[in-house]
Structure formats: C-alpha cells, structure tokens
C-alpha cells in the first residue's frame, strides 16, 4: 500500500525510493472530519495522486490539519459529507492558491474513493479555482562578496575536518580495545573505527569500559573526528553545488552508481532533474577533486552504513552535546541542518545579517557567473541575427530619450574625428577683424552669389569653410577644380547644368545656376 491509516488516527505514507513519512491526525478536535481527510490523503498518494515525496506529504498534512482546526473554529462539527458549498467557499476565500489546490486534490480523492460530497461542492471542484496563483520571482544570485565568503567558509570547514580526520585515523592506528587497555582517545578511536558509531556506543554502555565512566563530550569528539557530521557533509555538498551548478534535488539524491570514471581526472556524473528527467554532466576538475576528497573522508563511515552505503552524502547524526544514537543519515540539507550551519558558520550577507544558504540561489549564482565570464559578444541566439540586433532586442531596453542621447554622443564623436582629420586653419587677427566687419552684409546675400574673397587665409591658403564633395553626372563632363592650395572650399565646387563663375580668391571657376544653390 502506498499509504495506510493507522490507529490512533494517523497516516503512514510509503513513498517512492522507500521514503516513509508519518502524519498524525488523532490530536485534532474534530475526529470525524480528520478521519475523512485521512481517507482523502491515502487516496491522493502516489501512484494514485500527486503525493510522492516527503516534502509534499508534509505540506498536505499541514494543510489538512490547518483546515480541520479552522473549520472547527468556524463552528463546523461534521465530516466532509456534512460540508456545505457556502462553508467551503467561505474558507477558500481565506486561503492562498496552493492551500486551495491541495484541498481540492484531497476532496476529489475522497469523492472518488468514498463519495458523499454535496453536489454543489462537486461542481466547484470541477470548475475554476477561486484563488489565482501569485507571480513567482526568480531566485536572485548572491553578490560577489557573499559568494566569496560562502565559498571561503566551506573551504575552511572542509580543511579543518580533513585535518581532524587524519589525526583520528593515526590515533586509531595506535589504539587498542578500551575494555582491555583503558579509556583513552586512541582506544576510543580504535573502537569507533572498527565497530562503527552505533555498535561502539552500545559496547561502551554494555561494558562500562572497565567500570570507568566515559564522558559524552569525549565520545562526541571521537565520533566527529572519525566520521563526517552534518555540518561537514553540508559544507561538502554546498561547495560541490557551487562548482557544478547541478539542481538541488539532483545533488541530494546522488548515489555512488551515478559516478562514472572516464579517466583518473575526469568524471561523468548522472543525476535526475525533477522537472525534466535524467541528465549527465562532465564535472570540472575542481569538482572532481572535491568529490574524491569526500569519498575519502566518508569511506570509514560507509563501511558501517548498511543500506545507506550507496548514498553519496551520508553523515552521523548527533547534537552539540553528543546525545546522538550513532545513527547514519543521508540527506544533510534539511531545513534544520541549513539553519544550524548558517548559525555556526557565521557567514554574513551584504546587509550584515546571517546569510541563508539556498540551493536555488546557489544554482542561479553559478549560471550568472558562468554567463558573465564566458560571454564573448559574438554568440547569437538566432544565427540569422547579428550581435547588434540581438543586443538591441534582447539585452537592452532603452527609452527614446536614451536612444537620442546615445545618437548625440555618437555624432559628437564622429565630429571630433572629422575635425582631427581636417588641416589646421590659421587666421590672423586682421583677417578675423575683416571677416567680422563684413559678415552681416555677406550673410544677407543669396548663397549662390556669395564671394567669400577674404575667407581664404593668405598664410596657409586654406579655406575656413567646411569642405563639400564635388559631384558629377554622366550627362555633364566633370570639370577639374582649381589646383591652388585653397581648392576644396564651397566656392570652388562645380554643379551641373549651371554657368561658370570665377572664384575671386582661388582664381578658379565654379558653377552656379540662378535660383538654385550650388551643391
């Protein structure tokens, strides 16, 4: 059975991969409603329903227990068959999207298994949900400072644990049976190494170590030195996630048979991503070294792990006072372990508060940093697009004012380049005074009749007006401009279909047409 009802009232979930979860319902005030909810929970368990992991089972149990308490507070005393649509809709209005979704799943499963729900409730179950799902927010990557502090904390903790582990192995090599040779650190290390954590504790309790009392702190020190604790396993796991970017659920469920050695320094790691399926990854070199160190660190504990020996992340469970039973666990990234590691590590965020470790944020930061370091600017999403087009459409969202500002900057830069390429203009003070005196009258004359005789400097023989390119057409042969050093000014430009005009300054000829300016 995937799930079964036990007495006193509880639900025992038997989930895939042998996961067991026990949910208690006998302490609820309305036992009739609790019994009906237990029937719905059993019917909604995998393979008949969506309850297939421990976390999902825990969420459903929390929702059902809260529903039973809230309905009792509203004055409801019956079972699901006595529930009216008005009461149910009134309660749904106080729920969020996910609580309403779980309640609908359990009520549908109860109706298919036992039946008896009000027809109005059945119509509501077949219709649309009342609450809408909230807009999700993507995981925000850690900042560079937070990432470096988190990585440094994991590296330091792993290095300290490895040093202690080597010292404990050396002590165990020097030790002997403590029941014969007395209680010392070396003898306790020998006992824990050969008997395992659980059996060693029972041996100490049974024999009393020749009548000598063994301090619990001493036992905890030996156990923590020889076998990885939850904090050490969590540091290894977090650093492995930071160097590979694998999804959290894929890392947590890794087994030894997922590791394929392709050479002495390369590893092909296969894992399962919950939303897509099986995937594989060629581990980078630093991740391979970290994996080898973890396998070496946990090798002694794996010999005593029994059925959990195939799990990759195993550790010995205990509290700070050494009051553990020597049990071996395989998932070091629970909520309690994350909270305890955050408090013990002392890693702070940019805001000065303790930095929580979130698997989704670790993966998001890994991808964010990888994209920033490997981006070359030449990669395009669509090979038919240029990098500029994709940059404008996908990597930027400029406003019209920003685009105008950018175009202005580009125009100024182009003008600077053109000014630097132009020959220098040398004007004496006498030329400047003459130009200033005649400029008002000169500016009132038509453009095609202007004769700027004083604009060409007698020193450099160059024109102070901007140059204009000469044009020619196939119908009119091109006339050669004046060959004097002042060639290229506006007054020396020829225009087709016009009469020639003599330039007074350059002694060249130019062409203008009445009523039409020269080009």
UniProtKB/TrEMBL annotation:
Region (Disordered): 497-519
Name under which the protein is recorded: Integrase
Regions of compositional bias (Low complexity) in chain numbering: 502-519
Lineage: Bacteria, Bacillati, Actinomycetota, Actinomycetes, Kitasatosporales
């Amino acid at each position: 059975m995937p799930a079964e009802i036990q007495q006193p009232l509880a639900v025992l979930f038997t989930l895939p991969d042998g996961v067991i979860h026990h949910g208690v319902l006998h302490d609820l005030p309305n036992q009739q409603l609790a019994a009906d909810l237990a029937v719905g929970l059993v019917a909604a368990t995998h393979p008949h329903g969506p309850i297939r992991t421990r976390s999902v089972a825990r969420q459903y149990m929390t929702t059902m227990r809260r529903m039973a308490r809230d309905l009792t507070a509203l004055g409801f005393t019956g079972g699901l068959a006595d529930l009216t649509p008005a009461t149910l809709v009134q309660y749904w209005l106080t729920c969020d999207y996910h609580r309403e979704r779980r309640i609908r799943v359990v009520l549908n499963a109860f109706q298919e298994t036992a039946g008896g729900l009000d027809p109005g409730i059945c119509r509501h179950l077949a219709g649309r949900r009342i609450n809408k799902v909230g807009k999700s927010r993507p995981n925000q990557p850690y900042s560079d400072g937070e990432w470096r502090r988190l990585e440094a904390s994991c590296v330091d903790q792993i290095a300290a644990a490895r040093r202690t582990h080597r010292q404990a192995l050396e002590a165990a090599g020097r030790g002997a049976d403590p029941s014969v040779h007395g209680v010392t650190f070396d003898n306790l290390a020998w006992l824990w190494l050969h008997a395992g954590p659980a059996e060693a504790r029972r041996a100490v309790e049974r024999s009393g170590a020749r009548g000598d009392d063994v301090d619990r702190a001493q036992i905890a020190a030996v156990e923590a030195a020889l076998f990885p604790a939850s904090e050490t396993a969590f540091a290894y796991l977090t650093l492995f996630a930071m160097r590979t970017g694998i999804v959290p659920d894929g890392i947590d469920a890794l087994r030894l048979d997922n590791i394929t050695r392709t050479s002495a320094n390369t590893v092909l790691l296969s894992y399962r991503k919950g939303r897509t399926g099986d995937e594989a990854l060629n581990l980078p070199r630093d991740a391979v070294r970290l994996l080898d160190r973890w396998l070496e660190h946990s090798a002694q504990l794996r010999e005593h792990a029994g059925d959990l020996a195939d799990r990759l992340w195993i550790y010995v469970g205990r509290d700070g006072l050494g009051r553990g039973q020597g049990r071996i666990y395989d998932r070091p990234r629970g909520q309690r372990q994350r909270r305890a590691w955050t408090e013990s590590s002392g890693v702070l965020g940019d805001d000065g508060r303790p930095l929580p470790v979130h698997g989704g944020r670790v993966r998001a930061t890994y991808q964010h940093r990888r994209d920033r370091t490997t981006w070359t600017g030449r990669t395009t999403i669509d090979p038919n697009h240029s990098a500029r087009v994709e940059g404008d459409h996908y990597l930027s969202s400029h406003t019209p004012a920003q685009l105008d500002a950018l175009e202005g900057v580009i125009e100024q830069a182009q003008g600077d380049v053109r000014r630097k390429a132009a020959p220098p203009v040398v004007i004496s003070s006498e030329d400047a005074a003459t130009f200033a005196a005649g400029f008002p009258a000169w500016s009132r004359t038509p453009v095609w009749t202007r004769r700027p005789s004083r604009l060409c400097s007698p020193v450099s023989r160059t024109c102070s007006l901007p140059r204009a390119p000469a044009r020619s057409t196939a119908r009119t042969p091109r006339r050669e401009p004046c060959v004097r050093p002042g060639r290229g000014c506006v007054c020396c430009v020829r225009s087709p279909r016009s009469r020639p005009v003599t330039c007074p300054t350059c002694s060249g000829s130019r062409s203008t047409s009445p009523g039409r300016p020269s080009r």
